[in-house]
């Protein structure tokens, strides 16, 4: 493992700053300045948070639609980067002490929009010396998810893969990993800007789904490239067309949903599928959870994934001026600006980050 720092001194305070969600309505977020610092249980570590991204998945969490709703009040935030400052015991927890990590919280506890968070030791991936806290903050559910989803696709017999990650960190990591593995990949995007950006990064096959591509044209494209697995980043209005375009016995692996207005059953608006594709086409829709993958793959495999994607991220060619602007870093008490971005959009995934620890 890499990223070892001097073992931190004991904590000098018992309270921290944090954001608390008081109702699963998407807006009842409150700044708290004296929340008790949590104590890590056996197998957990306490992380001092340096950067925590604000992503579309956080909208689902704040609406009570991300996993099982947790007891309120609860601290949101699904991942972060920081330094392990305390171990609750266990070999792995002690080995992580003092290391810079990218990590995710427990399934039932508080999240990462705070100065400190307790996380399972196995959900920590050490950051390499060339990976900054800002780069590492959104790495878990994007770059490492890309590695894991390709592994799941291979297990389902993928010949060639299509994905809807676009020009996000997830999509760019899929591109870099496919180039390394010489894998045929079709990039399905939502705008001409993403077409230009991915082609500039070396993508050979890029299609704008918003350009009026017919179902027959999409099916012909899948057939020509041998695509039999689709990695659906955010299920929505195009999911049914993608399922129909797949060949017999093809698979659609769903990573998330579009966080727009909820449908009548609480699902993603505009996401409908034809069940006949499953019944008579032998096709399948599979849900992907990074937490489940990390739990089953084990820490060694998760560590390998983290090291590989960090190397790939470091070797990524320079991006255009419009897409390489630095992200916005917000203190916790400016959370209303983050909420404004969440519900209006306007910034690439992971570029808005809370920075609870003031950097000198």
Structure, explained:
This protein is an alpha/beta fold and 360 residues long. The chain has 12 helices and 15 strands. Strands 3, 4, 5, 6, 7, 14 and 15 form a 7-stranded mixed beta sheet that branches. A 6-stranded parallel beta sheet has the order 10-9-8-11-12-13, with helices on both faces. Strands 1-2 form a two-stranded antiparallel sheet. Strand 1 (15-21) and strand 2 (29-36) form a beta hairpin. The protein is globular, with a radius of gyration of 20 Å.
List keywords for this structure.
seven-stranded mixed β-sheet, 31% helix, alpha/beta, six-stranded parallel β-sheet, 360 residues, 15 strands
Class derived from helix and strand content:
alpha/beta
Mean pLDDT: 88
| Count of beta strands | 15
Strand percentage: 15-25%
Helical content (DSSP H or I, runs of 4+): 25-40%
Task: Calculate Rg over CA atoms.
Answer: 20 Å
Query: What's the main sheet like?
Result: 7 strands, mixed
Report how far apart the termini are.
27 Å
Low-confidence stretches: 261-267, 321-326
The coarse silhouette is globular
Number of helices: 12
User: SSE string, helix = H, strand = E?
Assistant: EEEHEHEEEHHEHEHEHEHEHEHHEHE
Q: From the structure provided, what is the oligomeric state, counting identical versus distinct chains?
A: single chain
């Amino acid at each position: 493992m890499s990223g070892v720092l001097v073992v931190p001194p004991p904590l000098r305070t018992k309270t921290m700053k944090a954001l608390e969600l008081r109702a699963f309505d998407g807006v009842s977020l409150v700044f708290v300045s004296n929340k008790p610092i949590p104590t890590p249980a056996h197998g957990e570590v306490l992380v001092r948070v340096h950067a925590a991204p604000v992503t579309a998945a956080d909208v689902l969490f704040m609406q009570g639609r991300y996993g099982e709703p947790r007891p309120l009040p609860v601290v949101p935030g699904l991942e972060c980067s920081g330094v392990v400052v305390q171990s609750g015991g266990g070999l792995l927890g002690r080995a992580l002490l003092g290391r810079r990590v990218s990590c995710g919280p427990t399934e039932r506890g508080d999240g990462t929009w705070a100065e400190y968070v307790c996380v399972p030791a196995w959900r920590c991936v050490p950051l390499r010396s060339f990976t900054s806290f800002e780069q590492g903050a959104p790495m878990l559910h994007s770059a490492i998810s890309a590695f894991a989803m390709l592994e799941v696709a291979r297990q389902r017999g993928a010949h060639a893969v299509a994905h809807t990650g676009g020009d996000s960190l997830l999509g760019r990591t899929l591109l870099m990993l496919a180039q390394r593995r010489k894998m045929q990949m079709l990039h399905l995007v939502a705008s001409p800007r993403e077409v230009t950006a991915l082609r500039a990064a070396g993508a050979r096959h890029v299609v704008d789904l918003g350009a009026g591509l017919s179902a027959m044209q999409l099916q012909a494209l899948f057939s020509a490239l041998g695509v039999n697995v689709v990695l659906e980043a955010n299920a929505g209005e195009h999911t049914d067309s993608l399922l129909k375009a797949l060949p017999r016995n093809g698979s659609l692996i769903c990573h998330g949903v579009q966080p727009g207005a909820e449908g009548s059953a609480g699902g993603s608006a505009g996401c409908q599928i034809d069940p006949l594709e499953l019944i008579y086409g032998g096709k399948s829709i599979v849900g992907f959870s990074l937490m489940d993958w990390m739990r089953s793959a084990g820490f060694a495999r998760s560590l390998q994934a983290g090291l590989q994607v960090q190397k790939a991220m470091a070797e990524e060619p320079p991006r255009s001026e419009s897409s390489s602007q630095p992200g916005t870093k917000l203190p916790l008490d400016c959370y209303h600006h983050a909420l404004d971005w969440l519900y209006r959009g306007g910034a690439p995934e992971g570029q808005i980050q809370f920075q609870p620890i003031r950097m000198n």
